[in-house]
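Hi R.,

Here's the chain you asked about this morning:
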Amino acid sequence: MYRYRCGIAWRDLPEVFGPWQTVWTWHRRLAGDGTWDRVLSRLTAAADAAGKIDWSLSVDSTIARAHQHATNIARTTGGFVELHESGRGAA
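And the predicted structure, written out as tokens:
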């Protein structure tokens, strides 16, 4: 849970949790057998029954990032053309 809350890599886990490889193996095993799904399901059901969940949803698109190659816009970076043109101007 700490890793997901902080958004860190497995290798950056604080030493208090033990070796990151051990934590990763344990987490993968619990995820694989459905334990985390059951925990989430029971916690959600209990919180909903207690009225502690607001089922409203808000999406902030400012955090949606796309890789530079995800666009369909051609991008001119200069490269050979820029070097070629600067060579003519130097003569």
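Residues 13 and 19 are 8 Å apart (CA to CA).

Let me know if you need anything else.
M.
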